């Protein structure tokens, strides 16, 4: 999945899993999956930026969107936002379909066509009510059609199971059990930790705090940022860090340290995990994140397909959306680019081993009793990095520098509240949809 991923992404994860068809030159800003040229419509997306992912998706467009010619225009997130805004506000829209993450579409809700009619025509797809609710972007009408999803999970080498605490179920861990497990594993491994997180410069470790640890301990992400439950969460994190490989601060992803055997238990985005077990999937498990006092907090990374208001060829655009939500197209994206279905598409039994492991873990996490859905920050735009840095600062100051938790949270809360005060945006899940969103 693209999701701000580094250079490893899925170009490594599917090497040897699925052959990547070569579809011709990838230069320029507009390539086609179905021939392009006269009569084609443009699908602009900030997903599938690695060239192999892009080429594979173009092949899916060619094979599955048989009724229309589609030019796939893959762009960076900043260009996606500015292009959509500029064209819509000028009334000169040339994009027919816009495909992006929920948080990237949310700021443009007023620039998107209502798609209630399309959603109604897709009743056989079996979209979860939770997803179609998010697709309204806070309003009363459907602004995008769910397209694909991903999340973060734990990858576990079966060698580590020998140290699992008695009575613990690796598929239903609690945070206390994870701490006990990693402590026992380090002690049995000659004092060398076997747990890892992607805490390098390009690592997505802040998503662990935002979408997993804090929701599981506090029930929220922003409104509960400096509350007493957040103090408990960060005190826990200090203990977990003591059992974590110190080289984690150099890991931009866990794929390579897992492959090398430096890490036997690791948390990361599925796209940055599945390369590790690709060669020997029988040696690995992928399991849901642990549960905390409030439940199992997990981050849903959801992408959708929207039609800008005033888009050319809206009828053809709707046909493209219908084609990309068929079971065949959904499974193709899963096989080729490790993005999971948002429909009731039956997952085949012959998936590549690593992808099958990830799919099962994501599904179990989503369906777990007491699951708390969290979203990546919504509506931050270019300031997403600033907010992410606040969570990284908490980790550095509390876990690496040993500063008092309460002192750190109070200082970082002031900075977080300053940014939110300037943006004046609603909160996002799991926090209540208050407007504007502020730290309590």
TrEMBL record:
Top-rank taxon: Bacteria
Keyword terms of this UniProt record: Cell membrane, Lipoprotein, Membrane, Palmitate, Signal
InterPro entries linked to this entry: Bact_solute-bd_prot1, SBP, TAT_signal
Gene3D superfamilies documented for this protein: Periplasmic binding protein-like II (3.40.190.10)
Native source organism of the sequence: Pseudosporangium ferrugineum
Taxonomic classification: Bacteria, Bacillati, Actinomycetota, Actinomycetes, Micromonosporales
Name of this chain's protein: Carbohydrate ABC transporter substrate-binding protein (CUT1 family)
Keyword Phosphoprotein recorded: no
SUPFAM superfamilies membership: Periplasmic binding protein-like II
Keyword Lipoprotein tagged: yes
């Amino acid at each position: 999945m693209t999701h701000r991923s580094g250079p490893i992404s899925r170009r490594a994860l599917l090497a040897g899993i699925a052959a990547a068809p070569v579809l011709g030159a990838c230069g320029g800003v507009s390539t086609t999956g179905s021939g392009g040229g006269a009569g084609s419509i443009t699908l602009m997306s900030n997903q599938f930026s690695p060239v192999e992912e892009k080429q594979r998706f173009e092949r899916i467009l060619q094979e599955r969107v048989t009724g229309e010619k589609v030019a796939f225009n893959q762009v960076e997130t900043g260009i996606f936002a500015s292009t959509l805004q500029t064209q819509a506000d000028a009334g000169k829209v040339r994009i027919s379909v816009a495909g992006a993450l929920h948080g990237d579409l949310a700021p443009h809700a007023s620039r998107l066509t209502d798609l209630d009619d399309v959603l109604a025509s897709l009743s056989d797809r079996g979209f979860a009510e939770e997803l179609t609710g998010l697709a309204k972007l806070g309003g009363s009408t459907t602004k995008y059609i769910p397209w694909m999803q991903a999340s973060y999970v734990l990858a576990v080498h079966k060698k580590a199971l020998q140290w699992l605490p008695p009575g613990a179920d690796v598929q239903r861990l609690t945070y206390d059990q994870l701490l006990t497990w990693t402590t026992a594993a380090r002690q049995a491994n000659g004092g060398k930790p076997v747990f890892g997180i992607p805490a390098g410069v390009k690592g997505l470790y802040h998503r662990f705090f935002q979408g997993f640890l804090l929701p599981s301990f506090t029930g929220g992400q922003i409104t509960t940022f400096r509350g007493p439950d957040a103090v408990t969460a960060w005190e826990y994190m200090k203990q977990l860090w003591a059992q974590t490989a110190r080289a984690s601060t150099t890991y931009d992803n866990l794929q390579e340290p897992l492959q090398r055997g430096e890490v036997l238990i690791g948390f990361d985005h599925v796209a940055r995990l599945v390369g590790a077990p690709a060669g020997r999937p029988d040696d690995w498990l992928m399991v849901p994140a642990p549960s905390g006092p409030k439940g199992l907090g997990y981050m849903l990374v959801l992408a959708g397909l929207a039609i800008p208001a005033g888009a050319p060829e809206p009828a053809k655009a709707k046909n493209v959306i219908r084609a990309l939500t068929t079971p065949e197209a959904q499974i193709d994206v899963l096989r080729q680019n490790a993005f999971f279905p948002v429909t009731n598409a039956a997952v085949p039994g012959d998936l590549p081993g690593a992808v099958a492991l990830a799919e099962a873990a994501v599904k179990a996490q989503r369906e777990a009793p007491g699951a708390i859905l969290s979203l990546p920050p919504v509506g931050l735009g270019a300031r997403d990095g600033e907010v992410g840095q606040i969570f990284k600062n908490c980790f550095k100051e509390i876990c690496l520098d040993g500063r008092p938790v309460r002192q750190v949270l109070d200082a970082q809360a002031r900075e977080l509240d300053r940014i939110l005060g300037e943006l004046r945006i609603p909160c996002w899940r799991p926090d209540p949809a208050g407007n504007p969103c502020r730290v309590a």
